[in-house]
Amino acid sequence: MTNGRHVLSLLALSTILVAAFPRVASAHKASDAFVSASVDGAEIALRWDVSLRDLDIAIGLDGDGDGAITWNEVVARDADIHAFVDGRLEVRGDGAPCPASLTRSGTASRSDGGYLVFRGTAICAQAPARIALASTFLFDDDPQHRAIVTVTRAGKSETRILDAIHREGEVSFADYPRDGAHARRVAFAFALWAVFAASMLGLTFVTLRERRTSP
Amino acid sequence: MTLRWTTLRAASFVVFLTATVSAIGTWIGASRIPRAPDLPPVTVPASGGDVVDILPPGSSDPSLARARELKKALRKSPADARLAVELAEVDLGLARRTGEPRFVGQAEAALRAFGTMADPPLPVLLARATLRQNLHDFDAALMDLGAVLVKDPKNAQAWLTRAVVQTVRGEYDAAAASCDHLFGLVPARVATTCAANVDSLRGRAAPAYEALARAVESDPAASPAERAWIGTSLAEIAHRAGDDRASEAHWAAARDADPSDVYVLGSWADLLLDTGRPAEARTLLRDREAVDALLLRSALGARALGSPDASSLEAALRARFDASRLRGDTVHRREESRFELAFGDPARAKALARANWDVQKEPADMRVLLEAALRTGDPGAAEPVLRFVEATGFEDPVIRALVARLRSPASDAGGSP
Fold it and tell me: What angle is formed at CA B207 by the lines to CA B205 and CA B208, rounded to 5 degrees?
């Protein structure tokens, strides 16, 4: 075998082996980001958890390459992190944009590792009945990425899973009580109804007993 | 008359009580609104040196820097197939070494520009087939490989990948035919590994082991990655032939060739768990619990040992499966079924194992369905596996023992009526 052929066969082999291993068998879940939006009138409190591992792959956080990301390493890349995430999350109320600014507020630990948490408030022009959240974060770098969006209003939560194809999720609250004050009005009305219903029940009971005891 | 007034008083008291309680209850319920969903607490690290995340081993691999360079270059010239294929290969290699599926997604992004192309270049088709295999999209992978082989019938990589996918799907005759094409195209030891693996699944484990051992003896593997691959095959074939001692020696060799290989660690740990050595399994998996499949084995080992951390490992694993389900993943069904069988709900384990069987038919897939059927006293649920074992002559001793228990009329199948 000539030297040239040998090199060629080795090259071919290394490519073959990379491809042939049936081995990445579902090691753990792929990339997720978590968005939670709590609606109170025209204000929407946002929390956005972004995986530190995603940021490391994208811009490299592990400065010293020791396999552990420290808080210093995160803070040192603040500008790059913001450049990577800013403007990637949009909120709309009844179709109109609700401007939001998000700031880094700490870290959170989830089942698959550490997350960087951003928080902020989106302000809509008026209390919306439909809230849409759109993410353009990471889908172009990783089509397996999902954004798990939870919108909460008046105690009701709904979840939407955004992916590379469906990058926007809408939650409609038209049927729900609008806020705490509305819910208290409903409670008052219910209490009145309960008093009325119970009185009717009591009266019926008394009348029945009277009929039975009188000859 | 006195009686009537007492009744009336009692009735009005009941009315008052009912109204008050319901009003208070509703009021409290309303004031609790709105309630935020449960979120993990946010902490601001007290010191800059605090570690906020541990990356999976291999993440500081130099190929990660290479991947970033290639990504930048590809952004500038997105139509460059050579750049795209190289990036996809680097990413898939990273995924294999780190056990981090994010790199599979990165590989998908690299090839996306060619995703809708009717007739992409051969290297793109090949890389896409491997990617699709990794995403458990076996139908699409076979389609890409078929397209490659029509254009280039001597493409060894396509035949080998096709054999692997066909084997996972339990199409052993087709897989053996694919392996046959490799003889003459690649070194004999590679073709023999392919063929021996398929043969060992068709009731010919002992001769397959002999043939492969002989082939490797005369022509040793060229690279550590290849040694790990061939070692894996030898270990699995030896186990199917009933020789666990030889199997363990091959697992050890495969691990030494590539210490980061997740597949090797998980399979070796299974052998240790099956042979009653949970402590050794835990030692083997130390510090690798970021990978779900390995955390599962750790949790099984901890429970067998009665370790104090058994319940925290179980909780961690449940949280990970919940997170996977939330995002709509279905590729973890085999592992989740095994988890439910050990720690949770056998009926759910059975449903997961059954759904998994429709997609993949490796020995581990047979095992979860057989065990779930036994546990739930429902031998009928295992019928597809029983037929499959019969048709292929599959001889793995663990699977055979489970089949025998399910078939015996006095089976301990949960005392079903």
Answer: 60
